[in-house]
């Protein structure tokens, strides 16, 4: 089923509320992709989602590391930022496909940089900056990104 929901927000608190609603729908094994321009709030939303899932420590941007791992209870969370990727072939060097398993949830910023290396996407979140607002479009089981 392909379902799209659109939210608008103009504060971190509203983004945290959206994040808390979203994480209730996720299960291990899912892939969540985030798109939007630089500074749109992709990493901020991932931080809010991890906090809503119960993560208490600092959440850092994987801009330079490509992937940051987190553990919440027994669930492995992987947060990817593919912005600096020159080619999808680079993903093979980090063992990209090994991160996707039934016991993990993967967040991928800049998924378009992965080319055909992406597994099935369960959720696509697009953040668009509109003046002083963010429009967050959430699509479940997207056909493409």
What brief labels describe this structure?
seven-stranded mixed sheet; 7 strands; alpha/beta; globular; single chain
Commentary on this structure:
With 145 residues, the protein is an alpha/beta fold. Helices cover 19% and strands 33% of the residues. The chain contains 3 helices and 7 strands. The chain has a 7-stranded mixed beta sheet with strand order 1-7-6-2-5-4-3, with helices on one face. Strand 6 (123-130) and strand 7 form a beta hairpin. The longest helix has 12 residues, at 12-23. It is globular. 29% of the residues are buried. The model has no long low-confidence stretch (mean pLDDT 91).
Element layout with pairings:
Elements (H helix, E strand, L loop, with lengths): L2 E7 L2 H12 L7 E6 L5 H11 L14 E6 L2 E7 L8 H4 L10 E6 L13 E8 L2 E8 L5
Parallel strand pairs: 2-5, 2-6, 4-5
Antiparallel strand pairs: 1-7, 3-4, 6-7
In short:
The chain has 145 residues and is α/β, with parallel strands linked by helices. The chain has helices at residues 12-23, 42-52, 90-93; strands at residues 3-9, 31-36, 67-72, 75-81, 104-109, 123-130, 133-140.
């Amino acid at each position: 089923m392909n379902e799209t929901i659109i939210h608008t927000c103009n504060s971190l608190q509203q983004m945290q509320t959206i994040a808390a609603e979203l994480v209730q729908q996720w299960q291990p094994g899912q892939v969540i992709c985030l798109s939007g321009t630089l500074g749109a709030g992709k990493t901020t939303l991932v931080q809010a989602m991890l906090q809503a899932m119960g993560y208490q420590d600092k959440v850092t941007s994987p801009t330079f590391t490509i992937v940051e791992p987190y553990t919440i209870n027994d669930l492995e969370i992987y947060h990817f930022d593919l912005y600096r990727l020159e080619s999808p072939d680079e993903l093979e060097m980090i063992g990209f496909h090994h991160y996707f398993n039934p016991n993990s949830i993967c967040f991928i910023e800049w998924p378009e940089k992965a080319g055909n290396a992406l597994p099935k996407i369960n959720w696509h979140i697009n953040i668009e900056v509109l003046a002083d607002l963010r429009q967050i479009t959430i699509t479940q089981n997207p056909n493409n990104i």
